[in-house]
Amino acid sequence: PKAEMSAETLNQSALLIGSAVNQDGRSSSLTAPNGPAQQVLIANVLSGSRINPHDVDHLEMHGTGTSLGDPIEVGAALNVLRRSVPVSGASSRDGLVLEAAKTRAGHCEPGAGVIGIFSAIEHGELHLTHGLPNLRGLNPHVESVIKGLAETYHYRTPCALIAHQNVFLVSGDRTKPRTCGVSGFAFQGTNAHVL
């Protein structure tokens, strides 16, 4: 039988509350990402974990910095996680930190997902996020996706450009557990996501 336990009783750094893997299926090429498959994956993990999309406050993205993959990933994530945050009712809890550990640790190939999980644990424990040290300007396609979704779903623009190496404390209620998602996508179309 499943025992109900709180983070306090377990005295732990992090709790894995859900995970799933899927496959892109047909796409335009072996390396082309599939946004709808990424959306289905994230939605399935949220549903299976019984987590409200708006309670996810941090996403450790696959984020390889490619002009094709990054806009698709950002669009897929925001479509699921921030589809209906109204401007008038938005709170500090509605913010979503988009981070990519690859900017600090490199790609790490098969270890990339583990680096993302370590980064998410650090974010959850210390309530901080890292700047993106190699980012000098926002990909115009990513910016276009963010602005388009903000207009479509009537929410505040959900990200800020942090283009330096500093570490920032994340605002919000520090007594509540942080919910972080971690995404990893393989070049042949396998997608993985954990909360």
Task: List the keywords.
195 residues, alpha/beta, two-stranded antiparallel ribbon
What can you see in these coordinates?
It is globular and about 45 Å long. It contains 6 helices and 7 strands; from the N terminus they run H-E-H-E-H-E-H-H-E-H-E-E-E. With 195 residues, it is of the alpha/beta class. A 5-stranded mixed sheet has the order 1-7-6-2-3, sandwiched between helices. A two-stranded antiparallel ribbon has the order 4-5. It has helices spanning 7-10, 35-49, 69-81, 102-105, 112-126, 140-153, and strands spanning 19-23, 58-60, 97-99, 128-130, 167-169, 180-185, 190-194. Helix 2 runs parallel beside helix 3 (69-81) and helix 3 runs parallel beside helix 6.
